[in-house]
C-alpha cells in the first residue's frame, strides 16, 4: 500500500486549503479512509473519516463545520477541504485507512509522508 499526501501550505487564519491523498496497492473503493494530523509536541490525532462508498462522513468535534472529507473512487484519491482555518489547525496532515477507535488510536496506521499545514495570524 502506498499513500501520497499533497496540497498543504502556509495560509492566514480564516484561509482555506484542499489536501489530496493518492492511494495505490489496495482495493480503494472498499477501504474506509481517514485523515489524521500531528501538531508539534502533540499526539497523533484522528480528524475525519469516510467509508468506501462515501455516503457518510465523520469528523472530530474541533473541525466540524469547517473541514470536509470526500473521495473519488475512480481516481483512488481522498480529499480534505479545510476552510476557516485556525492557528490550532497547524500540523502535519496524513491519510490512512480508518482505525477501529478514533478517539484512542492504539496502533498508528500506515500513512504517507504527510503534508504540512501552517496557519498564521
Strand order of the largest sheet: 2-10-9-4-5-6
**Helix-strand topology string:** EEEEEEEEEE
Q: Calculate the mean pLDDT score and round it.
A: 97
Question: In percent, how helical is the residue content?
Answer: under 10%
Low-confidence runs of at least 5 consecutive residues: none
Calculate Rg over CA atoms: 13 Å
N-to-C span: 37 Å
Concise structural overview:
This protein has strands at residues 2-6, 9-12, 17-24, 33-38, 44-50, 58-59, 67-72, 77-82, 91-97, 115-120.
Overview features:
121 residues; mainly beta; six-stranded mixed beta sheet
What do you see in this structure?
There is one protein chain. The protein is mainly beta and about 120 residues long. It is about 0% helix and about 45% strand. It has strands at about 1-5, 10, 15-25, 35-40, 45-50, 60, 65-70, 75-80, 90-95, 115-120. A hairpin with a 4-residue loop joins strand 7 and strand 8. The protein is globular and about 40 Å long.
Topology:
Elements: E1 2-6, E2 9-12, E3 17-24, E4 33-38, E5 44-50, E6 58-59, E7 67-72, E8 77-82, E9 91-97, E10 115-120
Parallel strand pairs: 2-10
Antiparallel strand pairs: 1-3, 3-8, 4-5, 4-9, 5-6, 7-8, 9-10
Amino acid at each position: 500500500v502506498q499513500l501520497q499526501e499533497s496540497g498543504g501550505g502556509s495560509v492566514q487564519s480564516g484561509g482555506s486549503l484542499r489536501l489530496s491523498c493518492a492511494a495505490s496497492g489496495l482495493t480503494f473503493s472498499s477501504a474506509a479512509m481517514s485523515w489524521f494530523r500531528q501538531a508539534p509536541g502533540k499526539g497523533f490525532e484522528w480528524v475525519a473519516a469516510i467509508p468506501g462508498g462515501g455516503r457518510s462522513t465523520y469528523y472530530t468535534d474541533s473541525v466540524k463545520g469547517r473541514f470536509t472529507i470526500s473521495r473519488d473512487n475512480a481516481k483512488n484519491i481522498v480529499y480534505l477541504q479545510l476552510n476557516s482555518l485556525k492557528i490550532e489547525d497547524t500540523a502535519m496532515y496524513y491519510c490512512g485507512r480508518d482505525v477501529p477507535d478514533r478517539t484512542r488510536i492504539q496502533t498508528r496506521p500506515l500513512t504517507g509522508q504527510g503534508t504540512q499545514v501552517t496557519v498564521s495570524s
